[in-house]
Design a protein that fits this description.
With about 475 residues, this protein is of the alpha+beta class. Helix content is about 40%, strand content about 20%. It is built from 11 helices and 19 strands. α1 crosses α2 and α6 crosses α9.
């Protein structure tokens, strides 16, 4: 079983300065690989001699260490290597259609550095571990962290700086075997209809009430949290106006940016806490074995509206402001993250989370099955036009969702969909010299310069170019 951990990290001021330098160097290598890839693809479209050639998708980075970037030698070579490996992993996701091409990382916002086993170790201590970071050449020392639950030493970690707070995150795998969702569905299909209906819960997701359950439970932020979040949001808007008036590159502008990040951090912490507490309460109920959600395309629902033009070519109103407000409300309701938390917690508990079609769940009567738009009288009122059944609209929709989930399980219609994943594969490489293992001294003529002229490049890049053209779905090395 794969388990993820996220702990608070407390580096000293000197240690934080070293970690920030590692973050910047790793980001520089990643962005350099992005720029190199854009360079190759641009000239592949414009130069005839580049037709049919592809950018090298490999983990080389030695070409970026020059006299102008001598500061890259001040950090461990593994930090630079991991930056190139992260770029390869991002490109592998693009080949698997799990995301777009790698983009440039910005200096603002959340920053992180990926450390492999050569750069850290966990030394056993009294009931926990001591987190040691650095190498013999570039020592950092012991960094204090708050291990609020027991864990085992991981193979790699990620140190993150988010709104002036440091975090340590990693995942470990143990011998525990999780129940297969398909086997759980087959086991639930043997239940009787009445028994499975009693052991199932349907969850309707909305904007006014984020989560309404068929058993009557409803989950939302309390009034104090809503008031505090609204207060933080208003303060963030004021500070954004101050930020816009301050000179770029100045200390006051950086102070304003840090203040805005701290204000947003409170809202993020409140919503993350809500997601985990709500999912825990749903899964922890011993009577519940089946959790049913309606299938909502949140990403599609929160897209910006397309621009509109009239017959004369003039731009007309497209409701972008109203749609932006609706998008904020949908994303603020925490639909997707709470469902994801329920899914992995349910699998660990031997329970099942499924989706059912969402059409007409709010217009269908849960008692007689009559569907009509006028059944939904308002946001909270439901009155069936045939049988006269009256109920809260969200509760009625949750009951319909539960009934559809029970019918899907009993009919054998549940089939687990295999998800595409990208996993880092570690390969042994031959050490070349005592410095960076990626350095090569052989150079040859490859097509990298502007126009149709040749340029110098490494032999390893040429090999990577050929490999990328033959097997574009190469996995991560190192």
């Amino acid at each position: 079983m794969l388990t993820g951990y996220r702990f608070r990290l407390y580096p000293t001021r000197a240690q934080a300065a070293i970690l920030l330098r590692w973050i910047g160097c790793q980001r520089f290598i990643y962005n350099a690989k992005v720029g190199e890839d854009r360079y190759f693809r641009t000239f592949a479209r414009k130069a005839l001699q580049h037709a049919g050639m592809f950018a090298p998708v490999d983990g080389t980075y030695a070409q970026f260490i020059t006299d102008e970037t001598a500061w890259l030698r001040e950090v461990p070579a593994q930090v630079l290597r991991n930056g190139a490996a992260s770029w390869v992993t991002a490109y592998s996701r693009f080949f698997k259609k799990l995301g777009g091409r790698p983009k440039l990382k910005r200096k603002s916002g959340q920053q992180s550095v990926w450390l492999t086993a050569e750069l850290f170790r966990f030394e056993p201590a009294e009931g926990s571990y001591r987190f040691m970071v650095g190498t013999k050449k570039c020592p950092v020392g012991e960094i204090a962290y708050n291990a609020h639950r027991p864990h085992t030493p991981p193979a790699s970690v990620r140190i993150t700086l988010e709104a002036e707070r440091w975090y340590l995150s990693f995942s470990t795998e143990d011998a525990t075997i999780l129940p297969d969702p398909q086997e759980t569905a087959d086991w639930l299909a043997d239940f009787g209809h009445a028994e499975l209906t009693e052991r199932a819960v349907g969850i309707d997701r909305g904007v006014a009430v984020p989560f309404m359950c068929s058993d009557g439970a409803r989950y939302d932020l309390d009034d104090i949290q809503k008031a505090r979040v609204a207060k933080k949001q208003a303060a963030a808007r004021r500070w954004k106006k101050k930020l816009a008036r301050r000179a770029k590159g100045g200390q006051n502008r950086r102070k304003a940016a840090r203040r805005i990040a701290a204000l947003h951090r409170y809202e993020t912490d409140v919503r993350r806490d809500f997601e985990h507490q709500t999912s825990h309460r749903i899964i922890a109920d011993p009577r519940t074995l089946l959790i049913v959600f309606e299938a909502l395309g949140v990403q599609r629902m929160t897209r910006r509206p397309k621009a509109k033009q009239d017959a004369n070519g003039r731009w007309v109103r497209n409701g972008a402001c109203a749609k932006a407000g609706l998008n904020r409300s949908i994303l603020g309701a925490m639909w997707s993250r709470t469902k994801d938390c329920c899914a992995y917690k349910a699998q660990r508990a031997g329970k099942l989370v499924i989706d059912v079609p969402a059409h007409h769940t709010s217009q269908e009567c849960s008692r007689c099955g009559y569907i009509h738009p006028e059944n939904r009288m308002s946001q909270s009122a439901f009155l069936c036009q045939r049988c006269g059944h009256a109920e809260n609209a969200d509760s009625n929709a949750a009951t319909n969702i539960r009934n559809r989930g029970v019918a899907r399980i009993r009919s054998g219609g549940y089939r687990e969909t295999e998800k595409k994943r990208i996993r880092r594969m570690r390969k042994k490489q031959q050490q070349v010299g005592g410095g960076s293992s990626e350095h090569t001294s052989v150079e040859t003529m490859v097509s990298r310069a502007a126009g149709n002229g040749p340029a110098l490049g490494s032999e390893k890049q040429k090999g990577g170019l050929a490999r990328a053209a033959e097997t574009p779905t190469s996995t991560t090395e190192g």
